[in-house]
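Colleagues,

For the teaching module next term, I've prepared a clean inverse folding example: a structure given as tokens, and then the sequence designed for it. I'd like students to try predicting residues themselves before seeing the answer, so please don't circulate the second half yet.
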């Protein structure tokens, strides 16, 4: 099989054009943010409008300006320990320069950037020269010798001593262009410090490639991978990864050759079902199976085994998806902030359109419009008062009807005897007047309740019969 690492093609030229355009757009958007901010600060009307649309408008402007001035476009390659992140990156850049061990071998961030020659620098997150100017150059060295020296920089002892540092690795590779670069991250879940280091760098991400170990826990463990995805979702919801699009994250299922051929279809479906439960708006096209080791082997043997015939096709699919992610990342910042600003302008435009329309009206048209509004308000008040009067009248009618019916009932001797069914023999004595009054009160109240309910049910029955006849 021929060398399958990404080579310079028309994609590279397209990438450069996208980056240049996004840089220009970001510069223009910075000016727009500043103009809108100044306008809102100087006009109480504009300020009220933008705050009505977005109560945190000024904070979002501050975040937007910071984000737009950030030139770097890092694409993070993340995954659990020993998922194969470093091997995958070696495959992409076409050179085995990153350490590959069965045990965890990368304990700090490694930013793989475009360079004229292969070399590595130790840098700090805060931009200081705390770690000096330590450089590993590949001049006069084999890739293995360079890799062995790099292993010393990224081993556990060195990285535990300086969690605020990262390694810049410059590689003459065609997938990298200007400020678009890949970041090899420590495998999360191995220890708390490494996970904290990853979480510290996540807000810088424009894109994410998640390497899944398809031989373990359906590709993602609940206590590691799922927790990291939850952290990413939380950062996204809090606006701390403003230019990251969750629909563009790419999940690569590594070690696919270790899944028996007859089980691959069902295993793929299980992974997709799992991802749909842990990642928002996950689409099955975001998952691509791959065997990094198998494809690397194919580069040198050019022989395809019968049990994994789709290896080359799988890798070509991965490359296509990575190109899509990289292209999206090139213009992610300007797209996000254009949408934010357009939503603000759309809200303001509604008010401006109405205001301009009113300004353009003649004096006669304005007076006529005012009269129509006054008439509308008058009609609304009249309608309300009429309804209120009808409700009062209706309440009075109900009350009068109940009183009249009750009066008629009491005028009937039999009804009165039914209410007070006392005989002379058991009639309370005059000294028990309060007892008589209390019993009468309870009896009359029960009667009134029964009479009202009966009357209501009777009227309802009459109305229902009328509907049925009609």
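(Answer key — instructors only)
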């Amino acid at each position: 099989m021929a060398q399958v690492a990404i080579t310079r093609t028309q994609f590279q030229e397209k990438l450069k054009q996208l980056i240049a355009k996004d840089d220009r757009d970001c510069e223009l958007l910075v000016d727009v943010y500043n103009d809108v901010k100044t306008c809102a600060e100087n006009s109480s009307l504009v300020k009220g409008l933008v705050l009505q649309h977005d109560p945190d408008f000024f904070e979002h402007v501050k975040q937007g300006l910071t984000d737009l001035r950030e030139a770097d476009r890092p694409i993070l390659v993340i995954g659990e320990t020993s998922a194969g992140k470093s091997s995958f990156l070696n495959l992409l850049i076409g050179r085995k320069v990153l350490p590959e061990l069965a045990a965890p071998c990368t304990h700090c961030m490694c930013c793989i950037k475009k360079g004229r020659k292969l070399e590595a620098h130790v840098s700090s997150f805060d931009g200081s020269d705390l770690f000096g100017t330590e450089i590993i150059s590949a001049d006069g060295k084999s890739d293995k010798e360079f890799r062995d020296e790099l292993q010393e920089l990224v081993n556990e002892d060195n990285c535990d001593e300086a969690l605020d540092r990262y390694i810049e690795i410059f590689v003459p590779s065609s997938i990298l262009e200007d400020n678009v670069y890949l970041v090899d991250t420590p495998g999360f879940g191995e220890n708390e410090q490494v996970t904290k280091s990853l979480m510290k760098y996540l807000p810088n991400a424009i894109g994410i490639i998640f390497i899944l170990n398809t031989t373990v826990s359906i590709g993602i463990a609940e206590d590691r991978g799922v927790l990291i995805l939850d952290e990413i979702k939380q950062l996204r919801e809090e606006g701390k990864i403003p230019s990251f699009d969750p629909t563009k994250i790419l999940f690569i299922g590594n070690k696919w050759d270790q899944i028996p051929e007859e089980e691959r279809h069902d295993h793929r479906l299980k992974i997709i079902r799992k991802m749909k439960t842990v990642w928002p708006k996950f689409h099955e096209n975001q998952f691509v199976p791959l065997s990094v080791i198998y494809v690397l082997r194919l580069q040198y043997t050019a022989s395809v085994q019968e049990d994994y015939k789709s290896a080359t096709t799988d890798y070509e699919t991965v490359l296509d998806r990575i190109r899509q992610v990289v292209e999206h990342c090139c213009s992610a910042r300007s797209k996000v902030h254009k949408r934010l600003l357009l939503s603000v302008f759309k809200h303001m435009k509604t008010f401006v359109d109405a205001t301009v329309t009113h300004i353009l009206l003649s004096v006669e048209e304005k007076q006529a419009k005012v009269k129509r509004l006054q008439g509308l308000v008058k009609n609304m008040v009249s309608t309300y008062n009429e309804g209120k009067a009808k409700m009062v009248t209706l309440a009075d009618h109900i009350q009068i009807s109940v009183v009249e019916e009750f009066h008629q009932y009491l005028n009937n001797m039999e009804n009165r005897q039914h209410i007070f069914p006392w005989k002379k023999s058991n009639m309370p004595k005059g000294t028990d007047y309060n007892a008589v009054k209390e019993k009468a009160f309870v009896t009359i109240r029960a009667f009134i309740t029964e009479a009202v309910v009966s009357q209501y049910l009777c009227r309802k029955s009459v109305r229902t019969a009328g509907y049925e006849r009609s």
